[in-house]
Design a protein that fits this description.
about 300 residues; mainly alpha; Recoverin, domain 1; Wheat Germ Agglutinin (Isolectin 2), domain 1; two-stranded antiparallel ribbon; 12 helices; 7 strands; binds 2-acetamido-2-deoxy-beta-D-glucopyranose; binds calcium ion; secreted; extracellular matrix; calcium ion binding; basement membrane; Osteonectin_CS
């Protein structure tokens, strides 16, 4: 169980921040898991790479011929595909056979698809998805969350309203931690640093820790301005493929996938966040579901 939690947190850490701050983010998240400190993050054998969920990132196939022995060495394929050469020695990406994926070393490598089927690993999942490419079924299939499929409790209305309270507070703390750790200025840009500095130096800031929902709600009301930037920042972190002011299911994955097994309101929260139901979460929708007022939504904050 412990490894599992660390695994999730490493993932969350990867998605949200640079590896150097993973343990800090872990501290933020695992307030009820005191065992976390004993485990060395770097030594965790089950860490997976940042690109693990980037199913939609098509690596542009290279046009020019590369005169190397094996043309596949220079030819990158997206997840679920592998490179093969045809008769004329031209490399191309073809669907990977799931049986060629490395066998999973345990449950913690399993992933659950939106078809509520457990796949041995994300490799197995993406290989399967590739084989369904072009079909309606393949189009609808996404990686839903990390871990074997399980029963996820229904999220009640009252619980749903708690989700943004904790998430906002967490985002603010992640940023403050990044600021504190960022001696070399490479975790945050200069502009971001200035914004977070203001939050960090604000004496009224609610310190990181376990807080009641009442206190979180009260703080949001009183110190509303401190939450505007963290909400924008997280959106910018996710809106990368492409950077267009909209989050696709895949772009949201690094945040959702590790969170769903721990927070049963995750799916419903992000579903309802897409207010116009067009399958994309626009910045305005995102800001709104975190309680940021319309007049404070500012594309320029995403730098
Ligand atoms: C998904 O699968 C799990 C495990 O097999 C099961 O317990 C759960 O009820 C399923 N969920 C849905 C929505 O069918
Ligand atoms: Ca996008
Ligand atoms: Ca939308």
């Amino acid at each position: 169980m412990r490894v599992w939690i660390i695994f999730l947190l490493c993932l969350a850490g990867h998605a949200m921040a640079a590896p150097a701050v993973e343990d800090a983010i872990m501290e933020e998240l695992v307030t009820e898991e005191p065992v976390a400190e004993e485990v060395e993050v770097g030594a965790n054998p089950v860490q997976i790479e940042i690109g693990e969920f980037d199913e939609a990132i098509e690596v542009v196939e290279e046009e020019e011929e590369v005169f190397t022995e094996n043309p596949c060495l220079e030819h990158h394929c997206k997840k679920g595909k592998v490179c093969e050469v045809d008769e004329s020695n031209t490399p191309m990406c073809v669907c990977q056979d799931p049986s060629s994926c490395a066998p999973a070393e345990g449950d913690f490598e399993h992933v659950c698809g939106t078809d509520n089927k457990t796949y041995d690993s994300s490799c197995h999942f993406f290989a399967t998805k590739c084989a369904l490419e072009g079909t309606k079924k393949g189009h609808k299939l996404h990686l839903d969350y990390i871990g074997p499929c399980k029963y996820i409790e229904t999220c009640l209305d009252s619980e749903l309203s708690e989700f943004p309270l904790r998430m906002r507070d967490w985002l603010k703390n992640v940023l403050v931690t990044l600021f504190e750790r960022d001696e070399d200025n490479n975790l945050l840009t200069e502009k971001q640093m200035l914004r977070v500095k203001k939050i960090f130096e604000n004496e009224k800031r609610l310190q990181a820790g376990e807080h009641s929902l009442d206190l979180l709600a009260h703080d949001f009301e009183k110190n509303y301005n401190m939450y505007i930037f963290p909400v924008h920042w997280q959106f910018g972190q996710l809106d990368q493929h492409p950077v267009d002011g909209y989050l696709t299911h895949t772009e949201l994955s690094p945040l959702r996938a590790p969170l769903i097994p721990m927070e049963h309101c995750t799916t419903r929260f992000f579903e309802e966040c897409d207010a116009d139901k067009d399958k994309y979460i626009a910045l305005e929708e995102w800001a709104n579901c975190f309680g940021i007022k319309e007049q404070d939504v500012d594309k320029d904050l995403i730098i």
